[in-house]
Amino acid sequence: MTVLKNICMLLGSTNSRQQNGNEEALIIQLMTQKRYAEAYILLKNESPGEPSTQYNLALCHYSAGNYQEALICLDNALRALSPGNYPGKAPADQFYHVIRQMQNQTNDHLEGITKKYVTLFRDLVLDHVIRLQTDCWLKSGNFPKVVETAKPLERKNYKNITEALQLATK
């Protein structure tokens, strides 16, 4: 019996759609708890063509210091993100901009993402990928790649991007 089936049985789910949702929720919970080894086991059973799977695998590799593997997963996530119409366009009201700027000062890109998040907020997922790529290049000491990767997001004032560019251009 697969790990997925065992976990779904523990969760008391028999519906495959519910199983997938429960497993995805468990993966996010494990990642939030910094239990990347367990999340990794579950992620290896997920569809490799899903951007969320690749992004979350990248986070697992990043947490273990496997920056090259994380970068490979991030490239896979970018390839898996299909162009198209996504409903997650930012509203133009002032409150959204205030909380967005506050959130840009956090490391929210180091949190796991779901398929639904990818569907609703594709542009933010793209930013998350670039932010995590920047972190990987910085940890690897490849400052020219830090600058090349981070520069397109500089105007968005993400804390990690600003800090990485400062370190890379000293």
Automatic annotation (TrEMBL):
Keywords linked to the UniProt accession: Repeat, TPR repeat
InterPro entries, per database record: TPR-like_helical_dom_sf, TPR_2
Name assigned to this protein: Tetratricopeptide repeat protein
UniProt source species: Pararcticibacter amylolyticus
